[in-house]
Amino acid sequence: MNNTTIVWDWNGTIVDDSYIFVDIMNSYLQSFNLSTISIQDYRQHFCFPVKDYYTKLGLNFSDAEFNQLSVDFIEKYKRVMHNPTLKKNIHQILHFCKKKKYNQYIVSAQEQELLEKSIKFYGLSSFFYKTWGLNNNLAVSKIKLAKNAFKNFPQNTKMLVIGDTVHDYEVATALNCSCCLVSWGHNSKERLKKTGAPVVANVEELFDFIKKY
Questions:
Q1: Can you identify the CATH homologous superfamily of domain 4-17+85-212?
Q2: Beta-carbon-side half-sphere exposure of residue 118 (alpha carbons within 13 Å)
């Protein structure tokens, strides 16, 4: 087994879907007579756990209400989950890593079954040795998931987490590994840069980073 491991995030990193989440969120905000948000607003404030983000927007729910909203959100998401395109030219990096025999995985805050269906829909299943999603739709945290997934990996594994949120940096920190953040997804470049991790603005920059890794 090659000792280089790439741990990919899915939503916002490989599939270019942040606008979908903005559209669904705005439908809720309108129903509660709250101000709608732009994609820039979303990237500036979106966070994990997602319930904290709802609170920032003025949606103060009990746990039961939040759980019900999460169910409703996923139903809305399922109707449009295959509308977004993959990030342009991301295939080049996936092919490069596969040719190099790097071990590619996905760790996502998306529910496992939805994640697997989405990866299959976009024809990317063959690139990933294994994919891990959550066992619920609450999008709380990926840290426990990632630590369990890689707890038995050899100590000499050279691991890189690639994601689009501050939380992906937190995952990399928990795994004690390298991180590269992309600024085209669910968090703004300004927020990502505050982590101190490398931040890339486009696929070409990410490709250059991986070639040098």
A1: HAD superfamily/HAD-like (3.40.50.1000)
A2: 29
- Rounded Cα–Cα distance for residues 209 and 183 (Å): 14
Predicted confidence at residue 50, as pLDDT, reads 86
Strand order of the β-sheet with 130-134 is 130-134, 103-111, 4-8, 158-163, 178-182, 199-200
CA 8, CA 32: separation in Å to the nearest integer? 35
Which residue in this structure is represented by tokens 């729910």? 61
3-state secondary structure of 54: helix
pLDDT digit string (tens) for 105-147? Answer: 999 999 999 999 999 999 999 999 999 998 865 556 799 999 9
**Tokens 């890794």 -> residue:** 213
Best CA proximity match to 183, nearest among 168, 161, 200: 200
Q: Do residues 198 and 209 touch, judged by C-beta distance below 8 A?
A: yes
Best CA proximity match to 189, nearest among 172, 177, 205: 205
Residues in the chain: 213
132: alpha, beta or left? (left if phi > 0; alpha if psi -120 to 50)? beta
